[in-house]
Amino acid sequence: MRTPTDRDFSRPFALLPIPREKCLYCSAPAAPRAIAVELALAEAASITIVNRDPTRGSELGALLNEKTPARADLVGRDRAYRIPETSYIIVNATSTGLFPHVEDRLDLDLDSLRPGLGLVA
User: With CB atoms 3.0 to 4.6 Å apart as the test, which of 16, 93, 97, 115 could cross-link to 32 if both were Cys?
Assistant: First the structure.
């Protein structure tokens, strides 16, 4: 399940109290899925995969549920996503805001941000 380069994705997680936490993961493409796997292997209690197209995240959710101890669930997003009070770590693995669309932003309900959230982007 891991490749030698996958461990590079785990470095930011060493700074966060991941074990037993509920995590929010934005994105589901194949390339950044190693990030979600490392998050699960760092003992996240659960990972909620948020994607505009729920079918794109179903493969990642199945992989995490079958091969890691973390519980993964998938939510579609058709409007600004409200970060649940139970989520403590947010991972942005999307290309949102990257060149050439540098003005794009994640469609998050900014009122749901709160002190104490860990963010990995």
Answer: 93
Q: Cα separation of 37 and 29, whole Å?
A: 13
CA 46 to chain centre: 10
Which amino acid, residue 47?
I
Inter-residue contact 116 to 90 (CB < 8 Å): no
Six-digit token string for 107: 């469609």
> What range defines the domain where residue 77 resides?
4-120
Q: Output the six-digit token pair for 53.
A: 């197209």
Task: Count the Cβ atoms, other than its own, within 10 Å of residue 26.
Answer: 23
Is this model's pTM higher than 0.70 or not? yes
CATH number at 33 reads: 3.40.50.720
Q: Which two tokens stand for residue 41?
A: 């292997």
Kindly state the tokens that stand for 72: 């993964």
